[in-house]
Amino acid sequence: MDGKTQKLELRREVGLLGGMSLIAGTMIGSGIFMSPQSVIQNIGSPGASLVIWACCGLLAMLASLSYAELGTVIRESGGEYIYILRTAGQPAAFLFIFTSVVVVRPASMAGVALSFAVNAVAPFYQDCPPPDNVVKCVAAVGILLLAVVNCLNVRLAMKLMVFFMAAKLLSLAVIVIGGVVLLVQGNTLNFENSFEGTKLDVSAIGVAFFQCLWSYDGWNNLNSVTEELKNPQVNLPRALLIAIPMVTVLYLLVNVSYLASLTPREMMSSSAVAVTWGNKVLGGLGWFMSVAAALSAFGSLNGTFFSGGRVCFVAAREGHMPDILSMAHVRHLTPSPALIFTTFISLLVLIPGDFQSIVNFFSFTAWFFYGTTLCGLLYLKIRRPDLPRVFKVPILIPILVIMAAVFLVVAPIIDDPKIEYLYVTLFIFSGIIIYVPFIHFKLLPGLLDRVTVFLQLFLEVAPADKNL
Predict the structure, then answer these.
(1) Dist CA 251 CA 51 (whole Å)
(2) Is pLDDT at 250 greater than 50 in this prediction?
């Protein structure tokens, strides 16, 4: 009425506690309840498995510190996508978003949703494995429920993150305290000659890292929502420095507790080691660990959903996805089209989903792009030292993480080549077939205009500006 126009943008509603909850709440998901048996099975000994867990925590910490510098130099949401776009250019960024939106993010969500469903239905199928169709239906319901929450209200989604983080910390505290009691009682047999049987071949170490790093996934989630973070120059590095060391220490203590009560053989034969631990240590209250694992995975799924939708939203805003995905709801101020699209793809991936194959594929692809992103940080450090930096890390840190990323990508292929890795690589670079005609040469620019207008009216959304 007064002739002034008001910008539509996402609100800054994520504070320090919310940022910590988004990181720790996403990291503490299904992994710590399900991956320990896979780690010890691949590496072969209790002592080596603890070393793997410690090394993965250190790697996540070093990588997150590097991302903290990137996030204070490039103050935009989008995580790896926006960093690759600003340092390596449009083709590399499109390859990332193509792989991320079509497979990596949906695969991650499907994997976490499956673990949530397995633990949620476990109390009803105590004497047999739950039917596959039941598990997938429960997983789909979980994804749809969180889609509704995240589309309606950012503040409600963050409150859920804080609540589920508190529930996770409580359940892990139960495991840690139980482990301390067992150690005091003298249950230390698994810690004697603990490195006996360790597998030192490159492939075994690489796959053990993949399985373990699944439990640490989420350390980079806060970088995907920088534009919704209050005072990001301060809260981004601070949240990382608090959340990741806390999670690493908890993971080590929880694994010690598992080893204090279960033999390596019992761990390797378990489908969910936390539930097996609960049945053995808590007796009649063993169902508590099944509920705790389900709640933990559900909270982690919420964090993955929250950040994943933002990456898709930012890519559309930069012209690498359909325009409708760059719009926000006019009242709720949430990127609802991007969240709906992410939900749809995740449900498709869920149909043939298998937890272990999802973990291996996700880890291989994710660390390929983590390494690419940190090469961009090296470029900025060497070629653009003049850019203002509120937070800086020594150049040695990103170099070490890049070396680790190269090892994680190359080692399994060299030691145990499988055709699946070739398929993954070909899929990543197949995005260029879409990029060249439709993004670079802009063929058929008005192809989706009618669909965009219809969806814009139907979903009540409008284009959103950057919140810098």
Answers:
(1) 12
(2) yes
